[in-house]
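Try it yourself: sequence plus magnesium ion, in.
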Amino acid sequence: MTAVMDSSYPNKALTNTRFSDLKPPLSEPLLEALITAGFELCTPVQAATIPLLCSFKDVAVDAATGSGKTLAFLVPLVEILRRASKPPSPHQVMGLILSPTRELSSQIYNVAQPFFSVLPNVKPVLLVGGSGIKADVNKLEAEGANLLIGTPGRIYDVMERVESLDFRNLEILILDEADRLLELGFQKQITSIICRLPKLRRTGLFSATQTEAVEELSKAGLRNPVRVEVRAEA
Ligand code: ADP
Ligand code: MG
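Structure, out:
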């Protein structure tokens, strides 16, 4: 694999694999959205992870900060939700992304923004602490949501309180920054959330360090995961 280093992001080596070269192929609208957002070549973690998640495999990914993990899970998530045979009903949650902090959750939501147009039938919602939960609960009851992005604390609370949300058809769960999720003490909420999700789903776990706790979480939440390990090049 030829690697081109971008000095502003020391860990972001680009491969010579284009998003349009990946197999199974990504859909045309998603490829167009990637190009419009300025993404043409994959980073190593993207080239390795996207085909796996797109072909029904669970993945446990260990790659340094800055290696491009966000698109490594957003691209397959968008592709998988796009493939759904019929549009979800308003309260059917099809995708769930758990991230350790309010800031990181908002960042993911912002990176995902240009791709929401590829999913006109999917309503995304950002769910983080800091503001009162009542507003989130009322809004979700009234309007529903098909993709939840947020912190485990707020997402668990919402699952407890909004009975109309239906997770039975969930396609994909992403645990981003799994090492930090556990450092911040979210183990219990994550386990409770996973208990309420269907077993037949895809799960991606992303981490910058491989700890014993991450390994435990991977055992509890993933099915025969493929390990993807990308070490920063010297
Ligand atoms: P990580 O989650 O692994 O820390 P990010 O997903 O936040 O890394 O990506 C780090 C930076 O690399 C971001 O600025 C992002 O826009 C950029 N980036 C990611 N993938 C690509 C790509 N395929 N081409 C160009 N830049 C990319
Ligand atoms: Mg990240």
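One thing you can check immediately is this: The chain is about 40% helix and 20% strand.
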